[in-house]
Amino acid sequence: MTTHPALGRRQVLALAGVTLPTAGARATAPGDILRRVREAGVVRVGVWLEAPPWGGFDADGRPDGSEVAIARLLARDMGVGLRLVRVTARERVEALLQDRCDVLAAALPMIQPHTGRVAFSVPHGRVNTVFAAPPGLHLRSLGDLAGLRIAMAAGTMAAEMAHAMLPPGSIALFTPGTAQTVEALLLGEADVAVTYDWQLRDLRLARPDIDILPQLPAHSWTYGLATQLGQPDLQRFLNIFLFLRGLDGTLADIHARYFASPLPEGLRFR
Length: 270
Description:
eight-stranded mixed β-sheet; 26% strand
């Protein structure tokens, strides 16, 4: 495996073309978010804390997760303080547009309509969702879902996209969260669960006695950091930040810590 020397904060800033403010620096136009962050000394990052392992809480009740870890790393490399702004799944984009946060680190999918409303960094993660069920169900196509109860997490992109795929006669059961989708399947309240491939893998490793398989693919999408449109300096900084932290292995370490797997091949930085 190729290793790369760690880059310091000033190197990251220099490569991104960001200068540190001086005492006599002129006031910045309100629309320049990157300079506003540097001069205020704090970056506001929107995080979704109801979506482990991307965002949640540790055993001591502190915000934790892969996106929270990236937010902390971003603030460190910017040389500013971090203010986490808690957002829900449905208000992620609005939080940016209403200027409640400077950057989103909330696993926002890089798909329409999001790509037309916010500016994305390069992707740093991928989501794969599947229709999971016991092997005895023998699902071969979406048509086989007709007449079945399909559990999916309310308010998530996975649920919205899976719900649109269901054939007539299928029954959508919306659960409070992703963990409850598989729980509904185990309790016999649902026949099929819309879940993430990593979640199913972890369940099978932790409970080898449970026989639930990914039977049909649902959707796959990448996600990245996001900011408001019309912020080329900040967008460039985010891209270089992710590239350099991917190059030195930091992003791979974060992914391994929270997903217990390597970065997907297409997202590896060399």
